[in-house]
Amino acid sequence: MPKKEPENPYESDVCLILEGTYPYVRGGVSSWVHSLILGLPEFSFSILLILPDRKERKMRYEVPKNVRHLHSVYLQDPRLFKKKKFQKTLGSEKYQDFWEMHTSMPFVGQNKNPETVNCPAFSQITQNLDQKKWSPSSLLFSTKSWDLMLRLYELRSPDVSFTDYYWTWRYLHAGIFSVMEKPLPRCRLYHTISTGYAGLIAARAQILTGSPMLVTEHGIYSKERKIEISRASWIYEKSRERFMAEKEMGAFKQIWINAFRVMSAFCYEQSSEIITLFEGNQRLQMEDGAPPGKLKVIPNGVEYDRISALPRESRSHATIGFAGRVVSIKDVKTFIRAIRLIVNVHPDTKILIMGPTEEEEDYYEECVQLVKNLDLEKCIEFTGNVNLMEYYPKLSVLVLTSISEGQPLVILEAQCLGIPVVASDVGACRELLEGREEDAQLGHSGIVTGLADPEGTALAVISILGDPKKARKMGEAGKRRMKQFYDMPLLFKQYQKLYTQYCDRSRSAAAGSHQVSRE
User: Fold this and answer.
1) DSSP state for residue 329 in the 8-state scheme
2) pLDDT at 173 over 90
3) Pair 146, 16 in one domain
4) Sheet harboring 273-276: ordered strands across?
5) Within a 10 A sphere around the Cβ of 486, how many other Cβ atoms?
6) What pTM, to 2 d.p., does this model score?
7) Which residue segment(s) compose the domain that 3 sits in?
8) Is the C or the N end of the chain the one with fewer CB within 10 Å?
9) Do both 444 and 425 map to the same domain?
10) How far is Cα 515 from Cα 60, in angstroms, rounded to an integer?
11) Rg (CA), the chain
């Protein structure tokens, strides 16, 4: 009688690992994830989503049928650190192991060089946590961990406040241990859409399961966190409002920045391929420890045929649109200040700020107050979250003033309709508006401006509004660029090839293991 074949251990083909996005938040990355899943129906997906807490959230997308499971991880989950859940303590031998490994990995210190990161030590820590040789409660609450923290403080940051160092240590490690303790879905391929905490989970999954792992970065995680941290008010430091990350920051901000760079290095080390949207990102990835031989570019795609078919509206007045979340990294305040200058020249202009306002409520309120202070209430409308496809046809110009971007989907979508774009010189904005080597001959489809530059932004918009022939020429160049180089099927074909390659590799490895076990 033949032996019964074992049940399929995989819950899905691909596990997408996300941080604070799909399906609860709308935006560029979430829209990209949704389109990717819909565009590859032959693959089954699990989603592992990292969230800050257990607060109830409303789904913003209807999850496709080929998504089998949705798992959540909470960075500050009090349930994880209840002592009753963990009975084992950190013994002397285990404590010494953890000390040696921790000092080789600058999670909390001032080492800025990712090349010094000890990735084998991270692998060992991953296995020890998985086997419950260590527990988060003992690593955070025991007398041994207190002693370890004192030693690290004296070694790395003896000149800063110990109280602030202690809370930095606790808060940072609580998040790290939360993602390191989460049970993993068993999948043929793990695909993380950032480094950071999501990258830690993906690296851990590769170590513990042996399945291949890919990383796709739209924006460079460590760079974006550096910008946010440099401006953060919740990290103690004498500070002022910053539009760019300053070269010199306080010790506690540097600790957080170093930690995210270390996480990136771990993720890059364990990945099979490191994908980004444009070549400019690759230099930043290599600075954070990415091996050049793993780097690959796959640009964003856009549904050109569907979007380009939308009828443009004929309007008696110009309409300027800002499409994006109302958050500090989008620098909406620069856009509002530019509008004050534009309206002085074109007083009948209508302005739409289209995007969610609830993510950074304080920042949104500051933007509303700035609109009042500049006497722009009659012309600026905060639409909140809307279907952009209903609003693009109204626009004369699309403007982005972000201080960090990857490859903004809103620029691709606007150009499908022939809308000229004014964007700050971040991410892929310049190559989208001026072209890469292969498409530069198509001409400019917009104007690139400097960061935090309301005057330059205003002048660029005024030059487009004042020259209909120029605006039309830019719009035509944008449409040709999107059709020839950024049409969605190009994206699907490249990811379909990668998914097939690595899922087949997992199937072969599983079949070989099963054959060995039967023999």
Assistant:
1) G
2) no
3) yes
4) 67-74, 45-51, 12-19, 187-192, 213-217, 273-276, 295-297
5) 21
6) 0.75
7) 1-301+488-519
8) N
9) yes
10) 45
11) 25
